[in-house]
Specification:
The complex is a heterodimer of chains A (111) and B (213). With 111 residues, chain A is α+β, with helices and mostly antiparallel strands. Chain A is built from three helices and five strands; from the N terminus they run αβββββαα. Chain A has a five-stranded antiparallel β-sheet. In chain A, a hairpin with a 2-residue loop joins β3 and β4. Chain A is globular and about 50 Å long. The termini of chain A are far apart. In chain B, the strands form three sheets. A six-stranded antiparallel barrel of chain B has the order 1-2-11-10-7-12. In chain B, strands 5-4-3-6 form a four-stranded antiparallel β-sheet. In chain B, strands 8-9 form a two-stranded antiparallel sheet. The chains are: A alpha+beta (111), B mainly beta (213). The interface between A and B is medium-sized, with 17 and 16 residues.
Amino acid sequence: MTLKKVEELEEKLKPQKEIPEFWPGDEIAVHIKIKEGEKERIQVFTGTCIARRGKGIRETFTVRKISYGEGVERIFPLYSPNIVKIEVLKTRERNRLAPRAKMYYLRNKNR
Amino acid sequence: MTIGILGKKLKMTQIFKEDGEVIPVTLIEFKEGYVVDLKTPERDGYTALKVGFEEVSEKKLTKPQLGYLKKRNLPPLKILKEFRVDNEEINNYKIGDKITIDIFKEGELVDVTGKSIGKGFQGVVKRHGFHGGPATHGSMSHRAPGSIGSTTPQRVPKGRRMAGHMGNETVTIQNLQIVKILKDEKILMIKGSVPGPSNAYLIIKKAKKVKNG
């Protein structure tokens, strides 16, 4: 099996999910399925996407927000079945942030 | 005493369970084979199935190899492997039978045999996990093995771990789980890693020591 065919196969293995285009710097809201015992509910994590890493089914993204004065970061697998929806609230330009692939400088600015 | 199937390691990736748990999997392209020969106690002194895998063009084989297979009305097969089976079990097979993926099912545990990646001549730190010596404070023995024996006996004991060739040997990983079988694409997904580089041949057998009985 050639490398190209392996790539095609990997594409097929990816969950068929609608994922909006978003980049580091965008303000996004991630709707996450949370299981508490038998009950299931949806929690929304809103913050700035500061990084995307990996490719294909292994891609992840990091969301940072300030919660009660404390910086909180969560890393999500992009294709996780627990992510119900990703909403783009504000793009990078409207967020007035510098264009970076990895927005780690926000950690030192406390935002 | 079990028969197996040949596979070609493609690469590692991951898949998601329904609850979002990530499972690391190795993609293996499996090859279905034909029974080439039956070894019997009367003729050979032991019982085994000889199975051929991987159809190739006639050009890739030598004339003696081709003649051997043609005599049995089989296509040109690149790789021949023997599997030991029970004396009674051998009667279920005859020359020309197909060995298919149906011998496995999803969720089953398997043993995977392959040739590990060659590392060349390596020291004891990499090869056996020795800790080595101090890095600083005037130390001059950084990655040395240290003492290899005492004054009596006046020799080095057999089996003392030392530097030498590492890797490129046959390794079997036991009790790996088959996560998924994609019959159309001829792909086997096995949880965890398997020996060898990409495109290396592997032998996949049913687990010899199945956990929990």
